[in-house]
Amino acid sequence: MPLVFAHYYSSGRFSRHLLWLACLAGVLGLLAARALVALAPVAGVFAVLANPHLRRDLPAYWRNGAALRAAAIVAFLLLSSCYTSDWPVWRHEVFRSLPWLGVPLAFTLAVPLTPGQRLSVGAFFVLGTTAVGLATLGQYLLNPAQANEAIHIGQNMQAITRVFHISFGVMLAQSFFWGLLLQRHPLAAPWLRAALLASAGAILLVLHVLAYRTGLLVLYVGLLAVVGWLLARRHLAWGLGLLALLGLGPWLAYHTLESVRQRTNATVWDVQQYTQGHDINNYSLARRLAAMETAITVIRQHWLLGVGPADSHAAMMDQYSWRDFGLRPANRIEVHNQYLDALLGGGLVGLALWLAVLFWPLAQPRTRRNPYICFFILTQATVMMVADVLSLQIGLNMFVFGYGFLVVAEEAQGNNPAPAAG
């Protein structure tokens, strides 16, 4: 037995299987079991320590620009200690930021996954997200009138596993695109191809019936990007056909689905409460617009380095005390825009750092040609216009895991293109 394990370890399979386990646990944690999200990076670090050639591979971390940019997020947070004032929040934010170090480290220094293992992780994410979406749809169909009434007043139906609705909508949209890509994978069995195609169709149904506003935004922006890609390559028939479907789809959904009508009408009414100066205490979008105006006022006063990531909440509440928009203290929310949040906490320096993390892969030929990475960046960049994704732990974990699994791993493979052993 010791000899068997010694061979298992020295071959690199132990490290690879630990990384595989960490990935599967991370996906399961995002979908259902929150504790696994916290444990997955720990398993990833153990995968690094189990690499039999760790000493030889250590320099690879310093050659991986994606991993170093992620580490720079933590470095900037540490440097903000020079001007932060809310030390308890700062310490908490430092602890929360550890996945920025652990996850890229795992995908840089652990023995890389085989193509089949990467396919299994991607398929698990797509099929698992679809299963949760269909179960949530079933819950909606048990009492659609009550669910539509909740939508009418601006509420959202939580996933059956209690995943936050914004994060879950983004996961559904990402699963739609990745499912269509994965079903073309050369290692995908016929049954898996069929399951992934069926998942894409099911996700379209779930997103529209449940009227997840953010998820639909991400979906249609992604489809418009596909239209642009087709037209740029002069596939005019396909591009114009898809564009026509994109115009027809929302119209059909509005006229056939009560949930979509309620969501649309509630959205318009919500925004009107802000533009017309009415009481906005019970309106989500109106409060977000008020928060954006509040954040911009603070940003103008601290444009270079921001107020400090740990002091953003205090700065917002202080500005609300000067102009509260008629909001009660319990309804004074944070800015729901990741770019403004980066400006608020880190100023132009923090925003530049964040934009480098998000968009630098598109400047590299290898990562730019990877459609999985392109859709990851597009979906995340879109949702970040309407949500401060990284302020929620699930949003942070979802981004960092996708960033490590796709961007860091792709750059690591480019730096060390030797094929992974079985």
Automatic annotation (TrEMBL):
MF annotations from Gene Ontology: ligase activity
Lineage top rank: taxon: Bacteria
Membrane topology summary: Multi-pass membrane protein
TM spans (from-to): 66-85, 97-115, 121-142, 163-182, 188-207, 214-231, 237-254, 342-363
Predominant location category: membrane
Keyword field contains Ligase: yes
Record-level GO cellular component terms: membrane
Alphabetical list of Pfam families matching this protein: Wzy_C (PF04932)
Keyword Membrane: yes
UniProt domain O-antigen ligase-related: residue ranges: 203-355
The entry's keywords: Ligase, Membrane, Transmembrane, Transmembrane helix
Compartments in which it is found: Membrane
Stated name of the protein: O-antigen ligase family protein
